[in-house]
Write a structure and sequence with these properties.
The complex is a heterodimer of chains A (about 110) and B (about 80).
Chain A (H helix, E strand, L loop, with lengths): L1 H14 L2 E5 L9 H12 L5 E4 L4 H11 L6 E4 L2 E4 L1 H9 L2 H8 L8
Helix pairs in contact in A: 1-3, 2-4
Chain B lengths: L4 H11 L4 E6 L6 E7 L8 H11 L10 E7 L3
Parallel strand pairs in B: 2-3
Antiparallel strand pairs in B: 1-2
The chains are: A alpha+beta (about 110), B alpha+beta (about 80).
């Protein structure tokens, strides 16, 4: 069972450059932390795949084990786990997130 | 279910004995905390790994009893 979920998660992060596992959708975030994560990615002018864990309990529980990370949101870039909203905010404020995306060949809006 | 700041601090200190921990109750409701954790044991680890160490210290409280813990980690100068 777990492997099926892990396979689905793996496929999402393989198929999309930026994946945000979040509560709600990018248009209607349903949690302040997920909302902040969306705002950061939007500020950077990126397009990203949003996965609403509230609509899929298997993913909601599975992603915590997959990443060894207990909370949502979770950001993946090019298959790599970047962190939750605290790390996203810290990296964004220090310009590291922009750099990381650029280093991975993803276009971002000018700072 | 809320957790008090002293319990959070104690759990972190038990797992990371040299840690300097500062906890703020952001709204005074015992539910929304910010934690600043500094430890030499974070050296050489990236942010994800540092946060994972703190989450591990909090066992399975994070995401359950402890809904909101804004976390910032650092290595002492």
């Amino acid at each position: 069972m777990e492997n099926v979920v892990f396979t689905r998660i793996q496929k999402e992060i393989d198929d999309n450059d930026i994946v945000l596992f979040m509560k709600g959708s990018a248009v209607y975030p349903q949690c302040g932390f997920s909302s902040m994560a969306v705002q950061i990615l939007s500020h950077l002018g990126t397009t990203f795949r949003d996965i609403n864990v509230l609509e899929d309990n298997d993913i909601r529980e599975g992603i915590k084990d997959f990443s060894n990370w207990p909370t949502i949101p979770q950001l993946y870039v090019k298959g790599e786990f970047i962190g939750g909203c605290d790390i996203m905010r810290e990296m964004y404020e220090e310009g590291e997130l922009q750099k990381l995306l650029q280093d991975k060949g993803i276009e971002v809006a000018a700072a | 279910m809320a957790m008090d700041a002293a319990t959070i601090e104690q759990m972190i200190m038990e797992a990371i004995p040299d840690a300097v921990v500062k906890i703020e109750d952001l709204r005074g409701d015992g539910e929304h905390y910010a934690a600043y954790v500094s430890s030499a044991s974070f050296a050489g680890k990236n942010r994800v790994q540092q946060h994972q160490m703190v989450y591990k210290a909090l066992q399975n409280k994070m995401g359950g009893e402890l809904h909101a813990l804004a976390l910032q980690t650092s290595v002492p100068d």
